[in-house]
Amino acid sequence: MKDMFMPLKISATALEAQKIRMNVIASNIANVNSTRTPDGGPYKRKDVVFESYLFDEHSAGVNIPKIIEDQRPFRMVYDPAHPDADKGGYVSYPNINTIEETVNLISATRAYEANLTIINSYKEMFMKTLDLTRV
Predict the structure, then answer these.
(1) Cross-strand pairs, 91
(2) 102-106 — which CB contacts under 8 Å span 24+ positions?
(3) Where are the domains of the chain?
(4) Residue-wise pLDDT tens digits, 1-48
(5) What are phi and psi of 60, to 5 degrees?
(6) What pTM was estimated for this model as a whole?
(7) In the chain, where do the E strands start and end?
(8) Is 32 helix (H, G, I), strand (E, B) or coil?
């Protein structure tokens, strides 16, 4: 017999993955002007990598195998008075576009809400099935 709770398990892993994605996006937005990090240099935008998995009939879902750094170049701004300015007077700012991050956040929120809807719908169907068996 197949696992009747598989849809719930899959949606639960997707909820966790979207939560992690939203946290990474929030970190990107919070660091949009961070020109100096403990590692040195400006903050590098991060993104999550999603991976679906199906090990057997009892284990499937969404996984985040890694969080990667964006390889796009930094945004260079001329500000010779800034303490992080180079010899030419340019400051390297993170490669973060707040509009892009906002769109990503909306997408992650919608995906999170969709998985909540799946869980609630499945729970409602399950409860109705139980009510039918009580007759």
Answers:
(1) 77
(2) 102/29, 104/21, 104/25, 105/22, 105/25, 105/26, 105/29
(3) 6-133
(4) 467 788 888 899 999 999 999 999 999 999 999 999 998 899 999 999
(5) -150, 160
(6) 0.86
(7) 46-56, 59-69, 75-78, 90-93
(8) coil
